[in-house]
Amino acid sequence: MTEIRKEYSNGEVTVVWKPQLCIHSTICFRGLPKVFQPGKKPWIDVEKANSEELIRQVQKCPSGALSFFVNQPKGDPDEGPVKALETGVRVEVIPDGPLMVDGEFTMVDKDGKRSVQKEPGYFCRCGASKTKPFCDGSHHEVKFKD
Description:
Layout: E1 6-9, E2 13-17, H1 27-31, H2 51-58, E3 66-70, E4 90-93, E5 99-102, E6 105-108, E7 114-117, E8 121-123, H3 138-141
Antiparallel strand pairs: 1-2, 2-3, 4-5, 5-8, 6-7
């Protein structure tokens, strides 16, 4: 069976629809009816919402029939900052230090135990931490640079 894949872009973000994965949960059009209109062709009109609204709604798709990607900026990459699209969790590389994960996320430990983390998590990048995967400040002692 050939996989059907349709893409709908507003220039900043592209919504991808794979109909063979759809379980018809109706979450998409109940959550953002101005964009997702099953009776119309094309049934997705990404121009009816901003990029953040599109991303938030697509992330609620339980089957994975809807997904998205952020388009590569056009032009000179040195022209200025590209607008960041927030997805609820922010990952930041701290210069010469840990990786910070901010926003609610699920942590799965080495034994498979799951816990919801609501506070920022700081994860070791230097390999010297005694509390892996978390940072304990050992990067200062080992003079980690990156």
